[in-house]
Amino acid sequence: MVGHRNLRLLVCAAFVSLLALWASSVALATSQTDTTDANVTVSASLTSNNRISPDIAVNGNWVTAKISVRSNLTELSYLTVYLMGNVEGTQWAFEKQILTQFQPGKVYTRTISFPVFWFMPRGVYNLSVMAISPDSFDVSAANATLRVQ
Question: Which of 23, 34, 49, 133 is the most exposed place for a label (fewest CB within 10 A)?
Fold first, then answer.
């Protein structure tokens, strides 16, 4: 009997783990920071002034998009920065690649705010920023998601 109880406990634990993994994959993320490449820290954020949830925007709300790239190096270097965004299910998308010189500890930040109008596409808006330093094979990547209803 003890063996069956352990087996049932193991099956329940596996089910709960799979359920948590599924739930986290569909959840919206307002902002994210990453330092996979130890030489670069990147952040992306999409938030609305919606009182119920900053992950959801409706007509009349304001959305703030923010990206940040920080050099963690102690010397002058070039970093390759990728900036991408899209609205899922539409053809609206952008992509930009920048090779730029960074001073040690320099932080590059850009913020833009815009209102949600009735004619804007409805759906999930994605914003991603990635950066890589010259001597690294790892990419620091941050993603932010916001739903416009």
Answer: 23
Paired strand residues for 144 = 127
Flag whether pLDDT at 31 surpasses 80. Answer: yes
Question: With 0-12 CB in 10 A as exposed, 13-18 as middle and 19+ as buried, what is 137?
Answer: exposed
% of the chain with per-residue pLDDT over 90: 72
CA dist 32 and 55 (Å) reads 13
- The Cα angle at residue 35 between residues 29 and 37, in degrees rounded to 5: 135
Average pLDDT in the chain: 83
Q: Spell out the CATH class of 29-148.
A: mainly beta
What is the DSSP-derived secondary structure letter of residue 116? P
What is the model's pTM?
0.76
